[in-house]
């Protein structure tokens, strides 16, 4: 086994009140110290069934400017399908360790796809209290079924059905985000790759942790994607940085959590904000989440939209191939 998985560490004979030192975050990152517990506003919740489309556009645009994140209800994805997606993901992580390792990311591979425990580089040498599975679910031309679990047998059909349903939601989101900037409906989608946008599914698995006050499932970051569509389970953990505070996201059964990512922030020249967020873990329960990252093809160049620039509003970002942006982000290198 290339690395020891967090799930395996939990099931080993750990002292009940202790975790390995490499998981203990610095004090300025520890959730017990840094989580805000005062009166806070809730992350915006947007109802796609509202009869006035202009009202929906207004809410989405405001949430994307002020928060970089919002929750969507009545989005059209059947609740039973979301439940099935969660069930097959849980069944995969319940498999014996050696079965999961069959899908491990190959050592040295450039792809993110596969089962694993760590992405990116931590300057402090610290680890995240999480395991994960990555695989692309759309378009068909970029899918590699090598990384799709064969067990449970329903894993593939459920993920294929979910891919079709989430694409419908994504098209609405891109349309309304564009219109919220005063642009034609297709501008933002085309600005990050159009029909070639890649849908990357990730299952995050955060096992119970003896010291959730000291560690994080995922440290603070913005998503390098254009946008992220996330389904959580019922165990709280997502936190958002707003007005100088780390605040907890409220769990809404069946809702989708929409993150504005770096590429939409770049396209909008900073009008929409990529959300800074992190994940805490629970002492008794396993938290899981299913984000789908919407990413441009690697060679696709993303830069501020000309329609949003003028002599008084210069570009805040330089156009860049997505693969180069990703490389710099993962390796903690300057982007420009």
TrEMBL record:
Keywords: Dioxygenase, Flavonoid biosynthesis, Iron, Metal-binding, Oxidoreductase, Vitamin C. Pfam families: 2OG-FeII_Oxy, DIOX_N. One of its GO terms (biological process) is flavonoid biosynthetic process. It comes from the Eukaryota. Residues 196-296 form the Fe2OG dioxygenase domain. Its cofactor is L-ascorbate. One of its GO terms (molecular function) is L-ascorbic acid binding. Belongs to the iron/ascorbate-dependent oxidoreductase family. This is Fe2OG dioxygenase domain-containing protein. It comes from Gossypium raimondii.
